[in-house]
Prior knowledge:
Layout: H1 3-17, H2 20-36, E1 38-39, H3 49-72, H4 77-99, H5 105-113, E2 116-117, H6 120-123, H7 125-142
Parallel strand pairs: 1-2
Helix pairs in contact: 1-2, 1-3, 1-4, 1-7, 2-4, 3-4
The protein binds zinc ion.
Zinc ion binds near residues 35, 89 and 111.
Amino acid sequence: xxxxxxxxxxxxxxxxxxxxxxxxxxxxxxxxxxxxxxxxxxxxxxxxxxxxxxxxxxxxxxxxxxxxxxxxxxxxxxxxxxxxxxxxxxxxxxxxxxxxxxxxxxxxxxxxxxxxxxxxxxxxxxxxxxxxxxxxxxxxxxx
Length: 143
Ligand SMILES: [Zn+2]
């Protein structure tokens, strides 16, 4: 999935655990679950500068959400922790791609296996739905 839905889903799942220690593995698990949904995301190496800019912007939004969760829910650190760990698997992947880290090749393969990619037209809806449900859950918490 794109990074922003990973961050939102991780935050919601982290909140559901109610525990900052459980939020970390739950966030990672939410990443795997999210990637198993049919989804569209840009394939590395990205084909255009626009796509690079899009991926970087998506990453910045996702990590800004982590900070926002930290600020918005000061007594619920599990939300920010879940969101961060929801994005961590792709941060590791980014390190693998950027620095061509050899010993992360197996990790890259595993991440690729646990993926259901769909064309853009179909592949945005599941992510949108996941994002809406996650935001809805978090807004309910805040009220
Ligand atoms: Zn991923």
